[in-house]
């Protein structure tokens, strides 16, 4: 059985949805930190949106 790698992406554009709900923005940040420090997954927060070049490079 092979090793499976996951990339979890939090898009910067989606952060704006939670700006009017500080507790949800805090929950988002807590989830990001939890995943970064407690799981073997790659957590990416630097991609602006799904349609950008950065996302295209990630798929290669």
From TrEMBL:
Q: What is the enzyme's main class?
A: hydrolase
Query: Keywords for this entry?
Result: ATP-binding, Helicase, Hydrolase, Nucleotide-binding
User: Residue ranges of the ATP-dependent RNA helicase DDX60 PIN-like domain?
Assistant: 6-52
- Keyword Hydrolase assigned to the entry: answer is yes
Recall the GO molecular function terms of this protein's record.
hydrolase activity; RNA helicase activity
Q: What does the record give as EC number?
A: 3.6.4.13
Keyword check for Coiled coil: no
UniProt xrefs under InterPro entries: PIN-like_DDX60
Pfam families, A to Z: PIN-like_DDX60
The name of this protein is ATP-dependent RNA helicase ddx60
Q: Where does this protein come from, organism-wise?
A: Desmophyllum pertusum
Q: Report the gene name.
A: DDX60_4
